[in-house]
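The authors assume throughout that readers already know how a fold can be written as discrete tokens. In essence, backbone conformation is discretised, so a fold becomes a row of integers matching the chain in length. A single example would do more here than another paragraph of explanation. For illustration, here is how one protein appears when written out as sequence plus structure tokens:

…
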Amino acid sequence: MNIADCRNFNDFRELAKKKLPAPIFHYIDGGADDEVTLRRNTSAFDDCDLIPNILASVGKPDLSTTIFGRKIDMPIFLSPTAMQRLYHPDGDKASARAAEKFGTFYSMSTMANNSIEEISNISSGPKLFQLYVHKDKSITDDLLDRCKRSGFDGMCLTVDTLVAGNREKDHRTGFTTPPKLTLSSLISFALRPSWVLKYITNKKFELSNVKKKTDKGTNIAKSVIDYINEQYDPKMNWKDAEYCVKRWNGPFALKGVMSVDDAKRAIDIGCTAIMISNHGGRQLDGSRSPFDQIKAISDAVGDKLEIILDGGVRRGTHVLKALAAGAKACSFGKMFLFSLSAGGQQGVEHLLKMMHDEINRNMILMGCKNLSELNNSKLIYRK
């Protein structure tokens, strides 16, 4: 199988599995604890059905929407994900270029292996930055200010990772960043010599956006879990979030909102958007899925905030269901990381084209000329 043969999530996943050492594949693939929430993130979409209208003379549907002050060509974009060079040598550069080509958002993690400035220089497409509040507040300020100078369009503050979730697969496989050869991982790395060669012959692994502010950015002797637990501020509160909103002074989302009350409070501190997310099922296992929560949140605040569903999206029909339930757009992580692992920029482009084609085809089948025609009347929830 190659990239051209990939037609769905499972195809990208299987091709990535053939190319990545087991610890790295399972870092993408896994969730917290028993992975109940990880599975629920996708299965939740099966609890309702789409209701199409016929003979609607759709023609070519308009898939565009506007989020974070930028018009995008389709209602789906790349979630912010850390350390993309683990999956492909081009990392964030490949993702940013692919997103720009398809007229949608690329999102950068605080824990990216490319810098804010590097990505700004290679892409003029829509760009979102994912912020974590560090114990050292100068790191947080530095990230906000550099994104402003570099022309990033929007900011999202991740609020569900005060401590790292219990990702048991990482413990079993010996996953660390940067990767280290251990007794538990030696064989899996030996079976992927192409990945190993690319890794050791490319740029040194580092967290490019924080390396000048903390030696943890360049001297990461432990795992990403240890970095989160040591560097992120577990006492982060609403005042800290409001400080970030005001310092950014532009389109701003809280990422990790799962309750109506928190969505309302996001409005109070000046947010323009929320990302309904449980961190891909990687934090609190047993929590609700984003799709389970979107209707209640949209009914309460949908006229005051841009609502983005983040998590579990595998198909174009999932995007349509999310929009009908009240989302303005969706973002996804696992599927695009598998496509990046499988084929770099070409892989991400192939995935985005596939999702664009699915959304376009299903809009025609739904009898919808534009995204605003997707509303609650297009959904029936099963009892």
